[in-house]
Design goal:
Elements (H helix, E strand, L loop, with lengths): L1 H46 L4 H8 L13
Length: about 70
């Protein structure tokens, strides 16, 4: 009887430690994803700045024709 209780207690302790280790890994993953999200948001904000497309095109050696009123 005492042996069964001891085995049960040890089993519960191992399960608890396993859950704690898993929670730690999940927390690390959450932090890594949060950092990556911040970087991606920063890149997105830079691309949404006015004229960003034109500056990027100019860096690549592209040019845009001047827009004119269409003649009907």
């Amino acid at each position: 009887m005492l042996g069964v209780l001891l085995i049960g207690i040890v089993g519960l302790t191992l399960v608890t430690l396993s859950f704690a280790a898993s929670a730690g890994k999940v927390d690390e993953r959450i932090q890594a994803l949060s950092r990556e999200n911040s970087v991606l948001q920063s890149l997105q904000a830079k691309k949404k700045r006015p004229g960003a497309d034109q500056r990027e095109a100019k860096k690549q050696g592209l040019s845009a024709s001047m827009a004119t009123e269409p003649k009907w």
